[in-house]
Amino acid sequence: MLNIVLFGPPGAGKGTQSNQLIEKYGLIHLSTGDIFRANIKGKTKLGVLAKGFIDKGQLVPDEVTINLLKSEAQKVENPKGFIFDGFPRTNKQAVALDDFLLEIGTSITQMISLDVDEEELKSRLELRAKDSGRVDDADPAVIQNRINVYRQETAPVKDYYSGQDKWMKIDGQGTIEAITQRLFDAIDSL
Ligand code: AMP
């Protein structure tokens, strides 16, 4: 199986690029942010709980997020592989993901970071706020909080994978097509 963690701060382009990768490699896209948003829309119990954290730019607790990820992954029959988008965001989630993949007889192939500078991230999020309807994109204070949480809790997850020799970064700036091509080249070289 090909299991990719697409990594980067808010606005790095993880969702956009995941959509380009799923078709070419036949991967299942697992975005915890998308699953939370679908639950918020459907007004489920999970959605109500998650909304309290998401609207403030905080992480949803590990326990909830890990269980959600596992149950979504288990729904898929005979996957060719997964693209994890927005998960893992803490070291605890990374360990839980390794344990889960081991249970189903596979492992992470590679974490790929999309490298984008902070000015560019902020201007992308501002643009996205205009048409995404995402509450957490609309408020500069919430965006700043998400960036701070990323720096403190999520960025160290990179070290977890580089410790396993499973980390690389690509330039996440330029046109969508150029970035996609860099990702294709990176994945084909694995
Ligand atoms: P995203 O769409 O990946 O930017 O996620 C939007 C929001 O959902 C994040 O700011 C968090 O509040 C929450 N979220 C998504 N994925 C996770 C995760 N792996 N762990 C904790 N919270 C998450």
Question: What report would you give on this structure?
Answer:
- With 190 residues, the protein is of the alpha/beta class.
- The chain has a single domain, classed as Rossmann fold.
- Helices cover 58% and strands 14% of the residues.
- The protein is built from 10 helices and 5 strands, in the order E-H-E-H-H-H-E-H-E-H-H-H-H-E-H.
- Strands 2-3-1-4-5 form a 5-stranded parallel sheet, with helices on both faces.
- Helix 2 (32-41) packs across helix 3 (45-54).
- It is globular and about 40 Å long.
- 32% of the residues are buried.
- The site of adenosine monophosphate has 17 residues, from helix 2 and helix 3.
Structure, briefly:
By secondary structure, the protein is of the alpha/beta class.
Query: What string, H for helix and E for strand, traces the elements in order?
Result: EHEHHHEHEHHHHEH
Amino-to-carboxy terminus distance: 12 Å
Q: What gross morphology would you assign?
A: globular
The largest beta-sheet arranges its strands as 2-3-1-4-5
Tell how many strands the DSSP assignment holds: 5
Q: Characterize the largest beta sheet: strand count, sense, and whether it forms a barrel.
A: 5 strands, parallel
User: In what range is the share of β-strand residues?
Assistant: 5-15%
What ligands can be seen in this structure?
Answer: adenosine monophosphate
Flag low-confidence runs: none
- Number of contiguous helices: 10
